[in-house]
Each structure stands twice: as C-alpha cells, then as structure tokens.
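Appendix B. One record, verbatim.
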Amino acid sequence: MFGRKETPPAQEAVDSASRTHEALRAQGKGAPTPKRSVQEAARKRPLVPSDRKAARDQSRTSVRDERARMRQALDTDDERYLPLRDKGPNRRYIRQFVDARLNIGEFLMIAALVFVVLSFFQSVAVQSAVLMAFWVLIVAVIVDCVLLRRKLKKKLTEKFGSPNQGDLWYGVTRALQLRRLRLPKPQVRRGQYPS
C-alpha cells in the first residue's frame, strides 16, 4: 500500500534482534549499557510460527521419536534416554540390587487376586483362613521392605557415600512390582548382585 512501510517477517526480525543481542553481550565492560528497548527486542521470539501446520507436524514427530527412544531405553537400560527418575549410578545400582533379590512384595498382587477369587466362597472357614493368610502376607511384605531398605541404605552408603533423596523409596517401590512388569526391565538374574 501507499505510505506504509513493509515490515520484515517475524523470523528475520528475531534473527536480527538476536544478532544485535549477541553483539551487545560480546562488547563486555567498557561499552555503554544498551537501552531497555534494544534488550527487550533482542529477547523477543515469535509466539506462533509462520507455518503452524509444519510446526505441529515437526513437534509430533519429535515427541514420537523421543517416546520411542525412551521406550527402547526402558527395555535396554540405556542411560542416555531413561526418564529422569531412573537416571544415575545410584538408581542403576538399586535396580540391579532389587532385581537380584527374591522379594515377597512381588507376589502381593497375585495374592490379592487369589484373595478376591476365594472371597466369593460362602464358607466362613475358607474366608477367614484366606483373610488371615492375606494379613500374614502383608506383614511379611512390610518386614521384607524394611529389611530391603536397611540393606540398600548400608550398600549405598558403602558405595556412594550416602543415598540420595528418594533412592530408598525407589528401591522399595521397585521391589513391590512384579518382576516382568518392572521398567526399566531387569538386566540381572536372581542372585547376581551388583559389586
């Protein structure tokens, strides 16, 4: 139109502003402080990309690739792509220690399923025996978890100095899961304790 100045596209404005910002940063001490408007312009980024459909497709593919890498890492125990809660040498040691051990908590879900099935019987003797056995199992699981926590704390203190926050709880919750359903997948056989 007549009398209007054409504005550059948003990406070009951002690129030029970021170059200006980098140049201002490179000056260091001894240079005058840039104006606030110049600094703010250097930090601006477009909120909406120019091609929204392409940006959405790119975002979807990157998220899908990231999920696939994470899933592969959960199967192979690849440290680079594991979720944050599973990363680190402490967590690897805890996983190996728990997976090498026979935990009573692994069988709690199976026992709960058996308890539900047997509770349909009308016999009071059967129901009371099943209920008593289930309570004994729960107490045994609690004792096993306390012993596991103490052993883990001792082993982690010997190997890494002291356990990080959440390490012991991580080991206990892993011990309560069925071995086949644990993620990351167990990488050691039973009895193959880490050194």
